[in-house]
Amino acid sequence: MPAIPESIASILREPYQLNPEQIECYQQNRFIKLKQVLDESTLGYFNDIITRQVDSMNKVTTTLAERSTYGKAFLQLFNLWRENESIKELVCSKRLAKIAADLMQVEGTRIYHDQALFKEPGGGFTPWHADQYYWPLETDKTITAWIPLQATPLEMGPLEFSAGSQVIVEGRELEISDESELLIQQRLRVTDFTHVVEPFDAGEISFHSGWVFHRAGANTTDQMRKVMTIIYMDRDMKLKAPENKNQELDWVTWCPGATIGEPIDTPLNPVVWETTRRS
User: Fold this and answer.
1) How many other CB atoms sit within 10 Å of the CB of residue 216?
2) pTM value?
3) Vertex 38, ends 143 and 198: CA angle to 5°?
4) H, E, C per residue of 196-220
5) 79-104 pLDDT, tens per residue?
6) Signal peptide: which range, if any (predicted)?
7) CATH number, span 6-255
8) What is the pLDDT of residues 47-69, one digit of tens each?
């Protein structure tokens, strides 16, 4: 496979400068949207590459009507960085990994895994949930880069956030389902957390922590809502004893060979950015 164009590679190497106010905003709300992280040509390049990779990996043959709420929400493909060298350049890029480290306030970041989330035309809503329910990770030093591969109006189902809701413990035990949509929505309704739902400009990326509650609306357009996500964790993240069957599966799938109580240092979890190398 040919190398990515140097003009795009140079953008992926270039730091994206955050100001103190943006870091403080993230620390309070546990999510932030950042404009112009990727330019038009870079976004178009990865839209094409990721779309072709998703098409080659997608095995879903059922219609939307035949699927569960979870199945209607999106087509979901994992660890594209292991399948495609061009996508690896994006997932492991210094530009995105440093943003993640700066927002989490850590000295380095590892990959947990990536996933493409393509919401089909007519695809359903994504229920309220917190991602870290699925992850056997010891601390909350986790962050997901949510990268729309096109401008995403409200009609396409962009990500929605309950700002600051990472402090709520109720609902953390729920997997993505009709139940999580109902119960978490009821809990959030009696709080004063701000519900943020906005369109995404082309090149705009959001970053959110593992415990902040979020959802996405249905895609009521006739176009695919294409999103690439990258889940980063603290370079020094340790594996915890799984608390549910999904965390057991994640251990085996995304950090095979890792040991409970020890840093997650496996070939599937490379360090992609750090301030200084450890001796």
Assistant:
1) 25
2) 0.96
3) 65
4) EECCECCCCEEEEECCCCEEECCCC
5) 999 999 999 999 999 999 999 999 99
6) none
7) 2.60.120.620
8) 999 999 999 999 999 999 999 99
